[in-house]
Amino acid sequence: MASIFSRIVNGELPAYILAEDDLHIAILDINPLVQGHVLVFPKQEVDYLFDLNHESYHALMEFTKGIAIRLRELVPCTRIGVSVIGLEVPHVHIHLIPINTVNDMNFSREKTRLDDELARKLVASFQLI
């Protein structure tokens, strides 16, 4: 069965898509730790980050870096935190989280709801250079 991310890639489920290329996609998390929490993943369904081949791994990291740089320009924060947990969805994905304190990366705390107005603004202004 296709992962939720594969279903987004295939257009079966809606998502706030910030950017994509032929191999990757970046979307807003619908249950973010903080507003601006982004998920970046390859379009190819692979369960575990380190199962990606060398080229795919580096391409994903390069795409992710571009997303993080642009995200930091658009969302007020000290840094963009990065996390790869990989247990919640069997599809490689990287969390990019605007942070001001280490607690902003605490996955055990209650998540918030995505602010639809902010989401629309981020999608509209998320143009990679």
User: What is the radius of gyration?
Assistant: 14 Å
The CATH H-level homologous superfamily: HIT-like
Q: β content, as a range?
A: 15-25%
Identify the CATH class.
Answer: Alpha Beta
Helical proportion, percent range: 25-40%
Globally, the shape reads globular
Model description:
The chain is of the alpha+beta class and 129 residues long. The chain has one domain (4-125): HIT family, subunit A, CATH 3.30.428.10. It contains three helices and five strands; from the N terminus they run H-E-E-E-H-E-E-H. The mean pLDDT is 95.
Features:
5-stranded antiparallel beta sheet, HIT family, subunit A, alpha+beta, single chain
Record the SSE blueprint.
Layout: H1 4-9, E1 17-20, E2 24-28, E3 38-42, H2 54-74, E4 79-83, E5 94-99, H3 116-125
Give a brief description.
With 129 residues, the protein is of the alpha+beta class. The protein contains 3 helices and 5 strands. A hairpin with a 3-residue loop joins strand 1 (17-20) and strand 2 (24-28).
